[in-house]
Target: Regulatory protein, Fis family
Amino acid sequence: MPDGGPVIVGISRSTEKIREIVRKVADVDLNVLISGESGVGKELVARSLHYFSSRKKRPFIKVNCAALPGELIETELFGYEKGAFTGADKQKMGKFEAAADGSIFLDEIGEIPMSMQAKLLQVLQDQKFPRIGGHKEIDARARVIAATNRNLEAEILSGNFREDLYFRINTISIVVPPLRERPEDVEPLVYYFLDRLSKEHRLPKPDISPRLMKLLKGYHWPGNVRELENYLKRLLVLGESKELEAELEAAGDGWNSETDTASSQEAVIEEAAKEVLPNKNSREKQFPSLKEVRDKAVYRVERALIKQVLEETNWNRREAAKILKISYRALLYKLKDMNLTPH
Model:
């Protein structure tokens, strides 16, 4: 990590928006939820929030909730006293205690079992907790930053995540879009990673041909920024640019999410038109009034657009409402009226 702290690289509007939010909320003691697909850089955002806050010189403690078995999460977070259970031969400090006045990063918080969600909620509310087997209350002073690649609103509806815990951790929401939705970030990321990796491994930076850069920008990066970084490590070490170019080309040369999205939106409109217009092959054509056509078409296109935006935001309804430029309440009404639910 550079001496100047974590660097959120990119020139896209969405990346600039993330940097702007980080600047605004870094030094405000509010809980933050960072959401996005695996590999988009959620931990980098969390570290940026810590680094640019007054807690910078205090601990930054990461807990990978997905890597811990359910029965170990409690001891990992809150520690235990000697003799608390079989095998507890000495006192152990938990992550909340170790974080002290710093930040605790709960990565993949959606993986925490329901039984532990209740205790975590209580700790966040009371800002105190005892170690397992102990009675002394310990202050939970750390700032909580959580991250998830799951759609927590959908998890709430399916009964897998507590709504009260969601609202407790989601005071500030930061959504990190997948790399395929911000292709303009690929080029600055390529040069940033190559510069950093060449210094780390003491290897010369490879040349990036215009053709290779075009392929890098056109690829859809299912593994997001992490996949791009791994690709560049291979390029740096092996130097086999032609072979790697062929791989990218085979995976889908010129893939373009914007073209894809535009095509799908046109298809939605065409499909809506088919549903409201009379069948061309019908002998007795019953033409609807313009009002009927308009009402039905608007309903169909609105429903398709709302569904598309919700899927793009992992069913984050508040974020979807912002994108659609309607109130949160209006969106909830439309979801009910259109019978739209996450699957």
In short: Residues 183 and 217 are 6 Å apart (CA to CA). The beta strands are 32-35, 60-64, 103-107, 128-130, 137-139, 143-148, 172-175.
